[in-house]
Amino acid sequence: MKLIMAVVQDKDTNRLINVLGEENFQSTKLASTGGFLKEGNTTLMIGCEDGNVDKVLKIIKDNCSNREQMVAPISPMGGNVDSYIPNPVKVEVGGATVFVLPIESFYQF
Ligand code: 2BA
Q1: Ligand 1: distance of its center to the CA of 46 in Å?
Q2: pLDDT band at residue 86, thresholds of 50, 70 and 90?
Q3: Phi, psi at residue 91, to the nearest 5°?
Q4: Range of the structural domain that residue 46 is part of
Q5: Which of 33, 60, 78, 100 is 20 to 30 A from 86, alpha carbon to alpha carbon?
Q6: Structural domain count of the chain
Q7: Is residue 8 included in any domain, yes or no?
Q8: Share of the chain above pLDDT 90, in %
Q9: How would you label 60-89 residue by residue, b for 16+ Cβ within 10 Å and e otherwise?
Q10: From ligand 1's centre to the CA of 36, what distance in Å?
Q11: Which PANTHER family does the record associate with it (predicted)?
Q12: SS in 3 state form for 50-108?
């Protein structure tokens, strides 16, 4: 068994959970925050059999989109300073960042 942890954008979450459900994959949705943008994203935990990992990865890939986001860089002083007006820079946020972990045991009590 494997645990798939997928960090996805909030906008893609509902569609992804629905498609996973239609294919009989259970998921748990966790509210998370990206360390770089400091904005909300969603982490899905999906437990599945080894033989289904590729199928789940394909569903994630098909339902998560790359998006460009503008981000204001922090000032050289490390915070917002009146005299420093930073130019926002474009950052491409990926469709999904996915970790596949081996599961030693799985219980439901
Ligand atoms: P954030 O950390 O908010 O990062 C959002 C996007 O900002 C990243 O998209 C990347 O394109 C860019 N970025 C991140 N760090 C950067 C840096 N030091 N300099 C310039 N640009 C930077 P993604 O790579 O698609 O990541 C989307 C979200 O996935 C991340 O949100 C984070 O929550 C998670 N993530 C990505 N890699 C991870 C990892 N190795 N471990 C844990 N979480 C990860």
Answers
A1: 20
A2: confident
A3: -125, 135
A4: 2-75+83-102
A5: 33
A6: 1
A7: yes
A8: 76
A9: beebbeeeeeeeeeeeeeeeeeeeeeeeee
A10: 6
A11: CYCLIC DI-AMP RECEPTOR A
A12: HHHHHHHHHHHHHHCCCEEEEECCCCCCCCCCCCCCCCCEEEEECCEEEEEEECCCCCC
CA of 97 to the centre of ligand 1 (A): 8
60 within 8 A of 27, measured Cβ to Cβ: no
**In whole angstroms, what is the distance from residue 32 CA to residue 40 CA?**
6
Residues with CB under 6 A from ligand 1: 7, 34-37, 41, 91-94, 97
- Tell whether 34 is covered by a domain: yes
What confidence tens digit (pLDDT) does each residue in 20-56 have? 999 999 999 999 999 999 999 999 999 999 999 999 9
CA pair distance 19, 15, nearest whole angstrom: 6
